[in-house]
Amino acid sequence: MNTFGPPKLVLERGDGARVWDADGNEYLDLLGGIAVNVLGHNHPALVTAIADQATKLVHVSNFFTTPSQVELAERLLGLVGAEGQVFFTNSGTEANEAAFKLTRRTGRTKIVAARDGFHGRSMGALALTWKPAYREPFEPLPGDVEFVPYGDLDALAAAVDDETAAVVLESMQGEAGAIVPPDGYLATARSLTTEHGALLWLDEVQTGVGRTGDWFGYQASGITPDVITVAKGLGGGVPIGACIGVGAAGSLLQPGNHGTTFGGNPLATAAALAVLDTIEKDALLDHAATLGRRLRDAVSGLPHVRDVSGRGLLIGIGLDTEIAAAVHDRSLAAGLILNACGPARLRLAPPFVLTEEQADRAVAILAAVLKETPL
Ligand SMILES: *Cc1c(COP(=O)(O)O)cnc(C)c1O
Q: Which residues carry this modification: N6-(pyridoxal phosphate)lysine (predicted)?
């Protein structure tokens, strides 16, 4: 179905941060499958993990568990640094759907979400997603969601009360273009939700799994949420998501309350373990933080660049005029994949294996495009 419009390219193979189209043209991939291919393309650790697991078990059903499923749940809770329970899914939307259902088990229904936030396209996840163009054709959606301006402490304080089931926030808004909230925002969300007996749910689908230079974006704020949803980078391209319930929040969904056929299957969980192992072994959190700073510094001096946002390897570039689509198209023609996430905003979410030399080359291509692009 024509849900995405015409595809830009036919891609045939990749290696690290490079991909090739069907005509043999090479591209530097600074979008990484939209923050998914954290190990780049064709990474030997991921390829080996998938191939090895495929010789043992690909799928078993949730009447049973598997060693990789148990190990991944324990690893994720270890990265959170808390006791809890994990529900595995196949996508970010499904992780959020599980979390949304979990919040209903508190006995309250009111959810506070953020303007410009993105949580997915199912009816439930869409109800939490702000963008009217996404929502309005599908209303009525599940109700009782109040939207507040992202980063506004007073608006959040005014919205959260003793009827609030949960506050759902991205630790940095991804689809909106790597919008970082003011210092203290997540800590305030934590104290407000604690005060009113509501859950704090962080959607880390885009910002999790090392993207920001921490395992989860919220960790820079020194808080622990009640619910964390992850997906995109977790399987390095193999579809997997997780809804992590910390402490008592992990026990809200009880037998019969929720389910999935494919979620948490041995192939996907083995792939995710290989991703986490490789990030650790190759010190890719530090690399993401350092390379992200280098990219932001280099980009901030370019023509038409009004602001540069983000942390680690999720970077937003605000332009002084609505040329993002033209910049995207010309960059692609020059061998650089990036994302136009708004009329005047670009987003970069490259693989963590991007090298300094590749980052510099990408900036040089973007610089040439921005110099040429007429106003
Ligand atoms: C991409 C995204 C989702 C949806 O994930 P899918 O895997 O596309 O279902 C949800 N929340 C955030 C923050 C995202 O960036």
A: 232
Is the per-residue pLDDT at 375 higher than 70?
no
Cα angle 344, 345, 346; round to 5: 135
The residue to mutate among 93, 97, 100, 207, having the most atoms of ligand 1 within 8 angstroms of its beta carbon, is: 93
Q: pLDDT of 252-304, one tens digit each?
A: 999 999 999 999 999 999 999 999 999 999 999 999 999 999 999 999 999 99
- How many residues comprise the chain? 375
Secondary structure letter of residue 217 according to DSSP? G
Residue 2 tokens read as 């024509």
Instruction: Give 81-146 as a DSSP string.
Output: TS-EEEEEESSHHHHHHHHHHHHHTTT--EEEEETT----SSHHHHHH---HHHHGGG-S-S--EE
Neighbours of 267 (CB within 10 A): 22
**Predicted local confidence at residue 152, as pLDDT:** 98
Q: Which residues approach ligand 1 with their CB closer than 6 A?
A: 91-93, 96, 118-120, 170, 174-175, 203, 205-206, 231-232
Mean pLDDT of the 18-30 span: 98
Atom of ligand 1 nearest to the CA of 34: 1
For the record, the structure tokens of 25 come out as 């043209």
Is the bond leading into 343 cis (omega within 30 degrees of zero)?
Answer: no
The pLDDT value recorded for residue 143 is 87
Give tens-digit pLDDT for 53-106: 999 999 999 999 999 999 999 999 999 999 999 999 999 999 999 999 999 999
Tell me, what amino acid is at 262? F
Distance CA 63, CA 261 (A): 10
Counting from 1 in the atom list of ligand 1, the atom nearest the Cα of 91 is 7
